[in-house]
Design a protein that fits this description.
The complex is a heterodimer. Chain A is α+β, with helices and mostly antiparallel strands. In chain A, 24% of the residues lie in helices and 20% in strands. Chain A has 2 domains: 79 residues, Alpha-Beta Plaits (2-Layer Sandwich); 60 residues, Alpha-Beta Plaits (2-Layer Sandwich). In chain A, helix 1 packs across helix 2. The radius of gyration of chain A is 15 Å and the shape is globular. Chain B contains 11 helices and 26 strands. In chain B, a hairpin with a 5-residue loop joins strand 13 and strand 14. In chain B, helix 2 packs parallel to helix 5. The longest helix of chain B has 15 residues. Chain B is globular. Chain B starts with a strand and ends in a 6-residue tail after the last helix. Classes of the chains: A alpha+beta, B alpha/beta. The interface between A and B is large, with 43 and 48 residues. Bound molecules: flavin-adenine dinucleotide and iron/sulfur cluster (SF4) (2 copies). The site of one iron/sulfur cluster has 14 residues of chain A, from helix 4.
Chain lengths: 148, 426
């Protein structure tokens, strides 16, 4: 399956991937509205995390692991592996906000939703024709979406 | 039958998914004593609290079993295993042959002998039927006493409280969640419960359950001489491995069913997983029963693959708990209370009582072996990585961890690369 691979040699730590992520997952699909209004009103937050250490940066998100720890930990059936696409799929309606997945995922790929008892996790921009928005937005091609 | 699984909990689901990774076709038979398809056992507290309806209990979509070519025999209990003839016998009188058998019978509530416990209105809280009973009971009662201040007891108490019942939780040890927590974490969590109005009494337990001459429940005499009036008692001290069936069939049993590093029990073609199994512990290296959800799934998954002919070693169980107390989240992983007289351990702790936040890290030599977070839990997974992957932690990285800023750039470079950006195909 295709996954998003971050390259720390190229990442410049600009956080544009995060902005693209919230825009893609917003109701308005508009960066300004998403950033200024939707973040505060509906708790819109990015699925990416950007880490920096000196000059080195990297933007990470869910790896869609073959054998994910989050699925093993989920008590509600809110996370499962889609056998057809290989994605680790989150079912928001089933989730009870127990944070077991957040604890179990050793890749730090799961966030708490700031308002609701739900999680925020990368869905590889499911349904978006151009593929993951973060990859498209990265100005230095530090994120690659490909089969490896 | 190629694969037979006894029990229909999460270990069973793990096994089905494990088998299907290796063998896409051969038929699987699951025999489960409970009536429903696998449900989220921890969800029974959400159900009792009224936070979710019964429609949200199922762990996998309705078509899961059919798609996975699994035959379900529910409401059926296995009464005997013949490891020589390779058959199991059910309470319906059926005898079924197996090539590979998984025993995933979970745990049963531990009930110490308390005088007066036999009789009406004393309950356990480990399965859906218990939750349903307590839901109907909650409508007509005013008070409940929960015996046990571990995970299940606290969950039972909280849920009854949410149903409008006045609840007192009794915990024999000096603090709640004594296994997963230390004093600081326990006092923050206990404080939150007290704020809400849930009474937790530590250092006491039930000495006797008082009944009137007609046998009706009246109350509980405590070990400190107090008496609590109550309408129901919930005994929720914990679970013990449900290994009776395995023991009777001659399988080796210690605290749980003994399994090797492939989850194999002591007879050919027989495996065990979940709360019933005594399997390798990741940190300690010895075999233990660690009755938690994730382990049950992982053990089932590993057993399933091996049942289907793969050769996969079980990496080891890792104790981990994530529990929230009315909006106050807590997470504990690995070793949280190291032996005080062992100098190879170093503990760092940062407590902010005002913010209700706490972070405790337990290092052994240059490794992180456990942690507790209360309040600010968002980086939990990043700490879990250090425990789980047993990465050595240089001095500078250790300072960063202690400051509460773990990240992936602290990982050894080749491990980072392999994980996040493995070789591009040429
Ligand atoms: C209220 C509550 C809350 C919990 N919360 C958490 C939590 O937040 N996090 C966590 O990690 N863990 C939690 N746990 C523990 C967790 O639920 C268990 O670790 C897990 O369910 C173990 O799974 P299992 O498949 O091994 O066994 P079980 O879930 O116990 O399933 C075993 C099944 O086998 C069936 N069975 C037994 N004997 C037979 C037989 N002879 N024939 C046929 N069927 C049989 C049983 O009826 C049962 O359905 C909680 C437990 C309870 C009770
Ligand atoms: S959330 Fe974590 S464990 Fe789950 S698939 Fe993503 S990276 Fe893997
Ligand atoms: S927070 Fe939601 S998705 Fe995560 S383990 Fe709990 S129920 Fe599952």
């Amino acid at each position: 399956m295709k996954r998003v691979y971050p390259d720390k040699e190229y990442c410049i730590g600009c956080h544009l991937c995060e902005l693209a992520c919230i825009t893609a997952h917003s109701a308005s699909k508009d960066l300004i509205i998403a950033y200024r209004d939707e973040r505060a009103a509906s708790g819109l937050s990015p699925c990416k995390r950007v880490f920096e250490k000196g000059d080195t940066c990297v933007a990470i998100s869910c790896r869609h692991c073959d054998e994910p720890s989050c699925v093993a930990a989920c008590i509600s059936g809110g996370l499962h592996k889609d056998p057809e696409t290989g994605r680790t799929v989150y079912d928001r309606d089933k989730c009870v906000g127990c944070w077991s997945c957040l604890m179990a995922c050793p890749y730090g790929a799961i966030r708490r939703h700031p308002i609701e008892n739900k999680i925020v996790k990368c869905d590889l921009c499911e349904g978006r024709a151009e593929g993951p928005a973060c990859v498209q937005a990265c100005p230095n091609a530090a994120l690659k979406y490909e089969e490896r | 039958m190629k694969y037979v699984i006894i029990g229909n909990g999460i270990a069973s689901i793990g096994a089905i998914e494990g088998i299907r990774k290796v063998d896409a076709a051969s038929e699987i038979l699951v025999i489960g004593a409970e009536d429903s398809p696998a449900y989220g056992r921890p969800l029974i507290s959400y159900l009792l609290a009224g936070k979710i309806g019964p429609d949200r209990l199922a762990l996998r979509p309705a078509e899961f079993y059919e798609k996975s070519n699994v035959t379900l025999k529910l409401g059926t209990t296995v009464t005997a295993i013949d490891t020589e003839a390779k058959t199991v016998t059910t309470d319906a009188g059926e005898t079924i042959g197996y090539e590979n058998l998984l025993i995933a019978t979970g745990g049963i509530p531990f009930t110490p002998p308390i005088p007066g416990a036999d009789g009406p209105d004393v309950y356990n809280f480990t399965n859906l039927a218990h939750a349903q009973t307590l839901i109907s009971k909650a409508r007509e009662i005013k008070r409940a006493v929960v015996i046990g201040g571990g995970l299940i007891g606290l969950k039972a108490g909280e849920s009854l409280f949410d149903r409008g019942v006045e609840v007192t939780i009794l915990e024999l040890s000096p603090r709640i969640l004594s296994l997963a927590f230390d004093e600081n974490a326990a006092s923050l969590a206990g404080g939150r419960l007290a704020e809400v109005g849930l009474a937790v009494r530590c250092g006491v337990s039930a000495k006797e359950i008082q009944r009137d001459s007609a046998g009706n429940l009246k109350g509980v005499h405590l070990t400190d001489g107090d008496f609590l009036q109550t309408d129901v008692v919930v005994i929720a001290i914990g679970v013990v491995p449900n290994y009776g069936l395995a023991k009777e069939s001659g399988l080796e049993v210690d605290r749980g069913i003994k399994v090797d590093d492939h989850m194999r029990a002591s007879a050919p073609g027989v495996f065990a997983a979940g709360d019933v199994a005594q399997a390798r512990d990741l940190l300690y290296g010895d075999d233990r029963v660690i009755p938690i959800w994730t382990n049950a799934y992982n053990q089932g998954f590993c057993a399933g693959k091996n049942m289907a002919g793969a050769d996969v070693r079980f990496l080891g169980s890792l104790a981990m708990n994530s529990i929230s107390f009315y909006g106050l989240p807590t997470i504990s992983v690995g070793m949280v209370n190291p032996p005080e007289d062992d100098a190879s351990y170093e503990v760092t702790a940062v407590l902010d009582e005002k913010k209700k936040s706490y972070r405790k890290l337990v290092f052994q030599d240059d490794h992180l072996v456990g942690y507790v977070l209360v309040g600010d839990i968002d980086m939990a997974g990043m700490y879990t990585a250090f425990v789980k992957f047993q990465m050595p932690i240089p001095e500078e990285a250790r300072r960063q961890l202690v400051a509460g800023e773990p990240d992936v750039l602290m990982w050894p470079d080749d491990f980072f690369q392999e994980t996040w950006n493995p070789g591009t195909p040429e």
